[in-house]
Design brief:
By secondary structure, this protein is of the alpha/beta class. The chain has 2 domains: about 1-165, 3-Layer(aba) Sandwich (Rossmann fold), CATH 3.40.50.720; about 170-279, 6-phosphogluconate dehydrogenase C-terminal like domain (6-phosphogluconate dehydrogenase C-terminal fold). The chain contains 11 helices and 9 strands. The strands form 2 sheets. A 6-stranded parallel beta sheet has the order 3-2-1-4-5-6, with helices on both faces. The chain has a 3-stranded mixed beta sheet with strand order 7-8-9, covered by helices on one side. The relative contact order is 0.10. The structure holds NADP nicotinamide-adenine-dinucleotide phosphate (NAP). NADP nicotinamide-adenine-dinucleotide phosphate (NAP) binds near residues 12 and 67.
Amino acid sequence: MNIGILGLGLIGGSLGYDLRSQGYHVLGVSRRESTCQTAIALGSVDEASVDLSLLATAEVIFICTPIALIVPQVEQLIAHLSAATIITDVGSVKAPIVKAISPLWSRFVGGHPMAGTTDSGIEAAQKNLFVDRPYVLTPDATTPKDAIAILEEIVRSLGAKIYYCQPEQHDRAVSWISHLPVMVSASLITACMGETDPEVLKLAQNLASSGFRDTSRVGGGNPELGVMMAQYNRQALLGSLQQYRHNLDEFINLIAQEDWTTLEAKLSSNQQARPLFTE
Ligand code: NAP
């Protein structure tokens, strides 16, 4: 089977490696000719081009460009495709993408692999990136069943764990566990930089160890990605941030009132809740 990948970066390039190792013939299209050449040289794709028409013979196409380009790229791509082609995307936000593409292409299934690194571009692509990682698919009642089944088989071949949900449910869930943490972690760094005594600030920077490294990691990452999360998942993220602010106020009040018993009860219930997300 021919599989197309549009956008040969971290996710697209990684998909290429694993799909080829499963015996699929992988056709890659990217913006830059140099990326196409690198993808071929690295073995991530069988063929590559900057021309969308290369994807005309693909039975399934993964759209792996930055979020803002997914819909415009599909709009250009569909002129080259036969009606049987299945299109899926890997964008980190689902509702706006599914809403825009579903009316354009009936055999579209939204998707989001919950895997990645902080690096980007074809050189950052990795083999086995999706093994044992969640992979969300968001078909609706009108999505053809055979298209879902074909895509499911391909995603399963990557070693990923498939979850089905509505696009809006996906966006709310990732706002809690991915987008809110970025904003909380970014606020942490800003707050620390607000220390007014330069000697104390320098000391804090020298003393910062694994705890600060863990809690500041996602907030100190790629700014473009953070802005895209906020822009494309604005409503869900605002809801999560407001709930977070409410919880932060509760902690402030407990500490101000020296209510150590309630504070300990809260921290204990968090200690029990954390493995529900991490294990
Ligand atoms: P990335 O490494 O920056 O790759 C995106 C690639 O898209 C670039 O390498 C670029 O290729 C290509 N591209 C840009 N404009 C294009 C165009 N007009 N036509 C064709 N190709 C174009 O980004 P990524 O991390 O793989 O993210 C890609 C998608 O995956 C995003 O939608 C993101 O939401 C989603 N995602 C990311 C992660 C993560 O952790 N990074 C996880 C899950 C899902 P050139 O080199 O040719 O310019």
